[in-house]
Each structure stands twice: as structure tokens, then as C-alpha cells.
Specification:
six-stranded mixed sheet; 5 helices
Amino acid sequence: MKRVSACSDGFHVLEHQVVHIHSQGATTEAFKIESRDYAPVSSAAAIYRLKTNESVLLINRQSNRAAIGEPCDSTDSGEKRTRLRRPNRTTEKITHKKLAKSHWVIAPVDEWKAVWEAERATVPDYITSTFYLVTGLLLPVWKHFAKAHSTIYRLTTVDGQSLLGRYVSVAAMATAATSFLWYCCIYAETNFSLCRRQFSLLIQKRFRIDT
């Protein structure tokens, strides 16, 4: 389990619901969070990374795209890889073998800047992503989530609310909701409010689902 402080230009709580009532009355809650981040990375900011690690300026001669290539972890089999950082903040890991066979080449600074800034101009000012933060009593429900989602996040929302809980992707939450018998709608395009009535009925019956 890893604990980190999440960073963003803005965390917004889209939905909040109690999803599990334990036998002693403690609860597990799920917060649907929207993260809003400033998207474009300037060429100056990207080049600054060259001063902090062994990065290189790359241009793809076929697609006319730019990237910063920097060292990263190896594959499970020990193959060395490079992480490509792009103007829209996305990243991609590629093995040195595949990189050598690709159209990515080291480029002069001036040429790289022109390609990077041209691509940056097409990127929206902000990008948004959605995930869930599961808070409260976590140990009894831990097994219902994929092992890949074991990071504990601490974040502060735009309205000053401090939250500490387990990060869960939207897809993983949908899977967990099914296996965990949660009687509220935690699916990719479903709003919690649609199932609040059903959930209230379960509370009235003092429904317990501890396993």
C-alpha cells in the first residue's frame, strides 16, 4: 500500500454516498471526484526537465509530433525503457529496442520547440478526469478492489474539504459494486442519486452486508 498527496489544479466532488454499513455501525463512503488540470506544457517548462535528468528532445518524423524522452523503469524482463512526455501531459513507456525502430529521433532545440509549440496550441486549456475515493472503514472492504488500486490518496477539494481514502478507477468501482452487492449505482455513466431511494430502504431495514 502506498500513500501519496494528490495534486491537481482543482478537485471537485461530483457525488458522495455511503456504500457500506458495517455491523458495528461504521461506514464506508465513496466520493466521485473530478480532477481538473491545466493541460498544455510549454516548451520552456518541458526543456527545464532536461536540467533535472538525462532527458532528450525527440521528434517523430512520420507524425510530426514532439516529446521529451526520459529514463524510466525497466520491464519485468529487464528491458530498458524510455518515457515519452507529450505537450498534453500524457506519457508513454517504450522499450529502447522499439524506440530505435520507431520514427522518433533526437532533434535540434529550435526545430523541437517549433513542433512542440504547434502541437501545444491544439491542446485544450484544461483536461478533466474522474475517479473515486473510498473513505471511512476500509479494511473489511479492501478485498473487493483490484490489487492494482492500493494507493491511499490525501487531497483537498476546491471547497476546502480534506479527504483521505483509497483511489479507485471508475471501471474498477463498477466491478467492485457488482461483486460487493452495493445497492447504489456506481457505474461509469450512472448518478448516485438514481439509487438513493433503494439505499434508504436498506438502511431502514438495518441491512448488513459484512463478509
